[in-house]
Amino acid sequence: MALIDIPAGQLGAIVTYLEMTERPKPRALPDSALRLERWKDPDPDKYRLLFRRVGGKWLWFSRLAMSDERLRAEMAEVHAIVDRRGVEVGMLELDFRTSGECLIRFLGLVPELAGRGHGAWLFAQTLALAWRPGVARVRVNTCSLDHPAALPAYLRAGFRAVRRAFESFPDPRLSGLLPADVAPQVPLFEHLPD
Q1: Are 11 and 59 in contact (CB under 8 A)?
Q2: Whole-prediction pTM value?
Q3: Mind listing the pLDDT tens digit for each residue in 58-100?
Q4: The total number of structural domains that make up the chain
């Protein structure tokens, strides 16, 4: 077994690539107090705010590092997940730019809603939107920094793992993209101890 040192100021994660090549059997959508709201032309600042609220604890940072111009070009079909009060409490981003495919770019709820039974509804909504006419494959990637329930939930939903990779990148808390106190489950090493 070989260990790979990760330099100070860097993070490492195992990325799992998943796919679904058969449309799930139709089922009734579970009830939920939440609803999806499609953002037709998302404002980059509003998008980043929700992205940070949903993914900060899991060190989502990729979209925070982009200029407004690049973010507008990268954003695909964005849906906010909204509670009864109209507060945005999650996000879903689906990318249909590759013919015959849907890539779930981002999917998540704010950490306060984790474990409260919204997952079945969210997966059902996501798959109903992803499997539109002409789609033959739905893909998603998750990593070892995501919520511990993410990978098992994708597998339960019918995805299968097709590949893994190791990813290393600068810790977004050190650059200021995310506050230093987010993701307390991942130690912050500006300098490695002697």
Answers
A1: yes
A2: 0.92
A3: 999 999 999 999 999 999 999 999 999 999 999 999 999 999 9
A4: 1
